[in-house]
Amino acid sequence: MVRFFLFVKVGGFGFLRGGQHGFNYQHKRGLVNVKLKWVKDRGLDAVVTAERDLKAACILVSIISSSPQCCLPIYHLSCHRGQLSLPCDLKLSTFIRKFPSVFVESHTFWSGGARVPCFSLTPEAIQLYHEELNVLQQNQMDLINRLQKLLMLTQGWTLPLQTLDQLKWDLGLPYDYQHSVIPHHPDLFSFIRLPDDRVGLKLLSWDEDLAVSQLQKNSARQQKEEDARSGCLAFPVGFTRGFGLKRKCMEWLKEWQTLPYTSPYSDASHLDPRTDVSEKRIVGVFHELLQLTIHKKTERKNVSNLRKPLALPQKFTKVFERHPGIFYISKKCATQTVILREAYDHQQLLQKHPTVDLRERFARLLRKGLLDRSKGLYKKSKGDGVEVDPYVDDIGNNQSSSEEESVNNLFYEYNSDEPDEPRMQL
Questions:
Q1: Hey, how many other C-beta atoms are within 10 angstroms of the C-beta on 404?
Q2: Where are the domains of the chain?
Q3: Residues annotated as region Disordered (predicted)?
Q4: What mean pLDDT is reported for the chain?
């Protein structure tokens, strides 16, 4: 459970300012070396594991739906495997057959008479996909604004398409945004050739109305006029039950919260990267970045690729460990996922984008297929007359036992290869 702390001020998040002396100390002395611990948050871990297969399944639905016959052979789908983040030892056909409520298997004959599996979509999946297209159309300006704000965070208002592709699921961008969205806004976006010969997306004009962070908006909404005037905005901070913040760390955090807040949309080249003032600006950048995502989270590797575009110093992701009350790092699903704590109440996202609601419905459809198949509703007959489950037949008995577990948990849960560390020296 996450508890958000309110210090002295009633009705607002954050820590009370400790005085100008704290600012001078931090500004002159640089980063304070504090020792904080990582504590497992089961609720936020569950948020990550619940979406383990959802992203890959949704991408496959988009790929199949974009084909002329809405049906593709497995070798065409395998070309997109790198975008699915599936385990290397899991066959793509095996993954698809896990969800018969979404994917329909058929066969075609390849050269030499070999039978090749092809996959199309069930009526329920097609309906959800069309509803998603309608939601994207109805919320197009919101999508465009979030894309603008992301580019406004970067140097030169530019991002490589490769980096943007890694974030498109988190931003709620359609799978084919390069063709379905960007060309319709030539006044805002342009494809350019980067110095390293990659293709990038450039924002053509700055929108001053969008250059306001969510933290600033929340402060204005909560009428923190004194904080707004002083520029010392505090971040909402909460910890997992049992965190046990030490007194030294508590005092450091109180002083850190009193430091000037630098908007992530303003120039910060004058800040010394070795100071806590600069660190607070970096925290503000990632606070705003996560606010732009529809699930208020993203994989840490996606953030690491933003160092140069965001003009950040080396080892900048250390702010996630130094501020576990603002960010939570989940180590589930063989990766690290950074989650904005304030956006969740246990496992519930407090403000849901319409696309999130659709994804949750899609997750229920995936689960229905898992449960129905576990009841034997998708058995097929082979030539010898023996009924078999095509999924079990494809992967063998060992994988079958894992599948029974996934029925109860909805999706496979992969623990991180990185061992849990009860404490981290920063």
A1: 10
A2: 49-128+359-375
A3: 380-426
A4: 81
Q: What is the pLDDT of residue 160?
A: 96
> Do 340 and 47 contact (CB within 8 A), yes or no?
no
User: What's the pTM?
Assistant: 0.81
- Vertex 381, ends 370 and 367: CA angle to 5°? 5
Task: Name which CATH class applies to 49-128+359-375.
Answer: mainly alpha
C-alpha separations of 174 from 24, 62, 80, 168, 355 in Å:
47, 9, 16, 7, 10
Q: For the segment 171-207, what is each residue's pLDDT rounded down to a tens digit?
A: 999 999 999 999 999 999 999 999 999 999 999 999 9
